[in-house]
Structure formats: C-alpha cells, structure tokens
Amino acid sequence: MTTATLTLDHGLRKGRRGTLGPSVFAFVLWACLALICAFLFFLLAVIVQKGIARFDLDLVTNQPSKIRPETAGVASALYGTLWVSALTAFIALPLGIAAAVYLEEYAQQNHWWNRMIELNIQNLAAVPTVIYGILVLAFVVRAPLSIGAVVLAGGIALALLILPVVIITTREALRAVPEEIRSGSLALGATLWQTTWRQVLPAAVPGIATGSILALSRAIGEAAPLILVGATTFVTFNPDGVLSRYTTLPVQIFNLVPQDRQEFRDLAYAAILLLILVLLAMNALAIWLRNRYQRRW
Amino acid sequence: MTTRHRTTGGLSETGGHPAAWQGPEIDLTPQRSRVGEKIIRAGLMGSALLSVVVTAGIVLSLLTPLISFFSNVGVGEFLFGTEWTAAFGDKFTWDDKSWGVLPLVVATFMVTAIALVVAVPLGLGAAIYLSEYASERARKVLKPVLELLAGIPTVVYGFLALTIITPILGAFFEFNSIYTALSPGIVMGFMIVPTIASLSEDAMSAVPLALRQGSYALGANRMKTTLRVVFPAALSGIVAAIVLGISRAVGETMIVTIAAGSKAHLTFDPREGAQTMTGFIAQIASGDAPQGSPVYYSLFAVGALLFVITLVINMISIRLVRKYRQAY
Description:
The structure holds 2 protein chains of 2 kinds. Chain A has helices at residues 3-17, 20-51, 57-61, 75-106, 112-125, 129-141, 151-175, 179-187, 192-221, 224-228, 249-256, 262-293. Chain A is mainly alpha-helical. Chain A has a domain at 57-176 and 209-293: MetI-like fold, CATH 1.10.3720.10. In chain A, helix 4 packs across helix 11. Chain B has a domain at 102-327: MetI-like fold (Orthogonal Bundle). Helices cover 70% and strands 0% of the residues of chain B. Chain B has helices spanning 9-16, 33-72, 75-80, 102-133, 136-151, 154-170, 182-205, 209-217, 222-233, 235-251, 254-259, 277-286, 294-327. In chain B, helix 7 packs antiparallel against helix 10, helix 10 (235-251) packs antiparallel against helix 13 (294-327) and helix 12 (277-286) packs across helix 13 (294-327). The radius of gyration of chain B is 27 Å and the shape is globular. At the A-B interface, helix 2, helix 4, helix 5, helix 6 and helix 7 of A face helix 2, helix 4, helix 5, helix 6 and helix 7 of B.
C-alpha cells in the first residue's frame, strides 16, 4: 500500500468520525458575528440610556457653558458641523466626481501616468486622518494662506480627507453603467462629454449619491484633523460665515472628555446620541437609496 | 483628435477614412463645440491631478519642518532613543528634553496588536460566515450592521472606551490609572472588524464556484471546502484586508488620544497607559502649539514617521489586492 492511499484512507475515516467538527465550526463562525452584533447593540444601548437624560431642546438651542453644565447645549457645535459639512460637500463632491469621470471615461487606463494617479488615490484613502490635519495646518491655517482656524480650514481638511473615498465610490458607480449605453450614445453622434453628461452620469446617480452620503457621514463624525486645524477652541457663538471661528459636534465631545462631573458626562452622552442619530439617518438614507434606485443592468 | 479610448475608438476611425463614405457629402472637421469638449476634459483632468497635488502637499508639509527638527535632534536619537519627554509649552529649549520616539512607536504597535487580536478572528469568522454560510437574506441584514460599526465616529468609540469599557475591564485587571492601552485596543479591534470582514468577504466571494464544486465532488464537506479550498485561494486578499486593518489601527487617533492617556513612556504592559504617535500629535495640536517652538517641530517629525509607516503598510496591502484580483 502506498503512502497516498494510506493518508486518503485515514482522511476518509477521520471525516466520517468527526461529524461534530463541522457544526462546531459553523457555530464558532456564527458566534463571531453574534459577538460583533452584541457589541454594537451594547454600545448603542449605553448611548441611548445615558444620553436620553439630557436629550432635550436645551441641547440644540443653548450654547456650551463651563459654569452651568446642567442646561448647557451644543448649539455652536451643531451649527459648526452643518457649516463644515456643507462646505466639505461643496468642495469634495464636484472635484471627486470630476476626477472619477476623468479616470473612468476619459483616461487611457493603461497609461503609466493614469495608473500612478490611481495608485496615489488608493494610498490617500488609507492615509491617517491626522495627516490631513497637518497638511491643512501647514498650508492653509498658517502661512502661505494664513486664514486661521476658521470654518473654511475645517471644510478643506475634511474635503481632502473624503476626496479619495468619493472618487473610488463614484468610479465604481460609473463602472456599473453598461458599455452599450455609451456605445449607443456615441453611435448617435454625441460627443464624449455629451455621452457622459446625458447618459452615463444620470445612470450612475444612485451609486454616486450613496457613496457621497456615506463619505459625508464619515466627514461629519471625524474629529482628528479638525483638532489640528483649531476647532478645539471654546466657542459659544454660531458661525456666521466661512471665515468664522467654529467647533463641531465630535470636537465638542472630545472637549467634554476631561470634564468628569456627572452633568458634563450627561451632556457628552446627549451630544453623542445626537451625533449618532444624525449619522444613522444618513446611513439609512444611503442604504435606502441603494436598494431603491440601484438598477442591475 | 479624440482620445484613444474604448468608447471613442469607433468615432475617430470613421473620421480617418472619408474616402469610404458613399452617402451625401458631410463636413467631418471638428465642430466648434469640440473646443468646449477640450476645456471640459482639461477640467476633469485637473480634478484628477489634484490628488497628486494633495500627496505632494502632504510630503512637503511634513518635510519642511523636518529640516529644522533634525538640525537640532540627531536622526539616531530620534529613531532609537527610548525616552520621549517633549511636552506642551515653549519655555524649554531643544536640550531640555529627550526626543526618542520609540516609546510612542512601541505604544502604537502595542495598541495595534491588541486590536488585531480582537479584529482578526472576529473579522475572519464573520467574513467566512457571510461568504460561505449565510443565506442571501441574512447577508442583506448583516452587512449593513457591519457598515454601521464602521460608521460610528471614533471620538464616540474613544469616549465609550474611557467611560464604559475601561471600568468593565477594571473588574478583571488591575489598572493603576483610568488610562490603559488595553481598553482602546479592544475597542479599536471592533472598529476595524468591518474593514477586515468586508474585504476578506470580497476576496472569498471572488473565488470561483467551480473550485467549491470540485471540492464537494471529492466528498469534502462545507467546513473542509472553506478551510482547504476557499480560504487558501483567497489568502492574498485576506492578508491584504488584515494589512489594511493594521494601517487603520496605526493611524487611528481619537480612541487612543482619549482612552490611552498622554504619558509617553516605554512599556510593553497593556494594562498601563501609553501615548501613541497619533495620541501625541492630537495632544500637542489641541493645545495650539506655538509656531517655531521645539514641540511644534516634533509634531511634524512624528507625523512624518507615521506617514512613512502607514505608506509602507498601504503599499503592501495594495500589492496584495492586485495579486488576488489577477488570480481569477
């Protein structure tokens, strides 16, 4: 008898005996997912339970206060978040979509130059978020632009941060549009841009919208780069323009960490609950958009 | 002329053979609107080039302050020094402080290691379940749950690590302060689970069905097929997912800044608090470091080191992903 048949024989017998193995394996896999879900629901339960106490109108109408934490709110941070995320969307979405259109519809895919851009974008997507803070701190907040720690600086930092994400998801959405649509349009005499603008982009809108909303929700929750561009100052007024000083919800939560009096903890949890609700709503919208409008060609 | 592109190839070729045209005479010279096309093309290309400008900007913003930093601190002292006493304020001079970055680097990798111990088994288990075991309906419910985990802001994770997880862990371990590397490490592990799970699942789903069918035909059950056929076939993608998870953990800022403390010291004990590279950057930045002070420059030095480390990790991950994409 050769070794091969011996091992085969052995393997077969082992397989017949070990009927418990596969079900244990399946159970372990299931347990991994169950543990992940349990952790998530535990966190959400804690946030709701601790945040609900101060989740009132004061939270969104009152300004932060170091003296009266029991009625203090996060109004300036909420408006700051709105300003910064609107600015982020305004900068990042057109640029990101344009870059994706170029790479997907115009560029020669195999040219070394375009492959370098592609590699570069993949890399940027994984650069630590603080690094974007350092970049904007060095060029925008201080010399040469020297605009200071204002809404615009925060918007630029977050826009650069989500730009690679917007580009990558938009490219995926464009790639999902079938080639026949382009060929048909071009065959009817449309130029490349007319084809892109009237046929490809409208067909890709659901995918682009889903990706953009998810990218924006990432920007809204981001605190690290904003700490570097000066959002940590104690601000008790709502921003009134792009050159106004500001703070945002995540940064405000970070600022509340060292305050360990119970009233401040309650306020922090209420702010977290508010932030999570905003993000959940955005995520739900993205998932709904994806399921409702995404066409399978 | 028109770009050589899969969608435009047909157009430019028609223009190239007017002699073959039998119908009525038409003007094939580019119309005026083509100028607009060119402008649009340039604009789109400019947007794509912006990403290169951003990278160049990052490198430039990190390099320039490095010159000042390394004219005062030796490269060897920075990279291999075991003491980091740089702290807030501009009262001190270069010689007052120690600039050995090792404590920050060790802390960074200690927290990352803890995160991986949590994230790799959980992430892979979830990925295998979703890819090989779950029904279509279960997948539709479970994938958004994973995405949700990735959608929670890191500042929230940090706050919960400090105020909830650390006290819970305190019942099992002896901590000597409220800051510990263990708690942010575990929480960070859950944070990177979605990264590892979804990328590994992609890699495993990309394994052709024929390989599984072949395995079943040979009499293997689902577990054996998964472990001996699908898993090895998807290995480079799975490793890429883990490597990307490492990059996320190394660069993660808020969780460690909030829950791991701001004491930089060389320790391998996860129960102690330990400041990471990102933690140092955030701590100094939140205090608005005066421009030109030693600590201001050190912020860029640590940032540059962080950028280089994550860049190397990312390149490895991108390489690996390319490899498995080519395989099938």
